[in-house]
Amino acid sequence: MDNYRDFAGRYDLFYDEFGERDPDTVKFFRSLFERKGVRSVLDCACGTGRDLPMFNALGLEVFGSDVSPSMLAQAEKNLAQLDLAIPLKCVDYRELPQSYQRRFDAVVCLSTSLLEMPDETEVLKALKSMREILRERGILVMSQGTTDKQWSEKPRFIPVVNRPDFSRLFVIDYEDRGADYNVVDMFHSGERSEFKVWTAHYHFMLLRDDLERLLKDTGFATIEFYGSYRFAPYDKSTSDILITVAHR
Ligand SMILES: C[S@@+](CC[C@H](N)C(=O)[O-])C[C@H]1O[C@@H](n2cnc3c(N)ncnc32)[C@H](O)[C@@H]1O
Q1: pLDDT value of position 105
Q2: Which residues are CB-contacts of 206 (< 8 A; sequence separation ≥ 6)?
């Protein structure tokens, strides 16, 4: 089932322009990848392709995969507009070795994509699959907006976009272990006045300590956690983003 079918066409409204990435994110990946000798990268939950142009601009060999055909169709359109030919494949990130015979210097799984797994057994399958297609000492980079701070404060409303013509608000229904992220879109221009809702269901929360445990169980070594794209150390009580870098 393609969970993103009704959302893929609107997904990119999260940001201003496809292909543009903020300077901190670009600097983070440039610096990290240079230090770790990364020349090839697979974005294994690439969605509409948001980060692929950035990796391409860093001079890397870039590949994208995702399980959602509708997100990949949008990625194809987005990349075509920039005249970028980046190979895309429809692959579940739990089954990467079956689709990629080669190894990568880095695998990335960004923007809370790992939290879509139904339970820890499936997370372990996913991490094992990502590790298997990394070369020795290759790195896995993950990011998520659900942090220890957010999970302890449990804000119900998080505004994410507020433009003259469009607003996007997360309305979050928390459960014991998981949460429903209702993405509420409001179009309010002269041409379009419309209201749409799409829901992402997270079965359970994966926070810093869970990730550390699961990554170690999978055999990853040297796990680093950052709380911003400026390499600030991750702080459970203040960080609004959780970035993980794990070495094979
Ligand atoms: C929130 S989006 C993030 C997309 C992109 N990384 C970004 O930053 O815009 C989550 C993505 O994870 C993908 N995804 C979820 N489960 C997956 C799986 N089992 N295998 C591969 N991709 C998956 C979804 O299809 C979706 O495109």
Answers
A1: 98
A2: 114, 115, 123, 144, 146, 214
Phi-psi region for residue 137, left (φ > 0), alpha (ψ -120 to 50) or beta?
A: left
Radius of gyration of the chain (CA): 18
**Which segments of the chain belong to CATH 2.20.25?**
149-202
In this structure, the residue with its CA closest to atom 25 of ligand 1 is 68
Tell me the angle at which helices 120-132 and 208-218 cross, rounded to the nearest 10 degrees. Answer: 50
Return the amino acid letter for 44: C
Q: Which residues make Cβ contacts (< 8 Å) with residue 189, sequence separation at least 6?
A: 164, 165, 166
Q: Which of 5, 68, 100, 229 to mutate to test the pocket of ligand 1 (most atoms within 8 A of CB)?
A: 68
Q: According to CATH, where is 3.40.50.150 located in the chain? A: 8-147+205-247
Instruction: State whether the beta carbon of 113 lies less than 6 angstroms from ligand 1.
Output: yes
- Atom from ligand 1 closest to the CA of residue 94: 19
The CATH code of the domain at 149-202 is 2.20.25
Per the confidence metrics, is the pTM higher than 0.85?
Answer: yes
> What CA–CA distance (Å, rounded) separates 181 from 200?
5
pLDDT in tens, 20-44: 999 999 999 999 999 999 999 999 9
Give the pLDDT confidence of 82-125 residue by residue, as tens digits. 999 999 999 999 999 999 999 999 999 999 999 999 999 999 99
Q: What is the pLDDT of residue 165?
A: 94
Q: What is the CATH number of domain 8-147+205-247?
A: 3.40.50.150
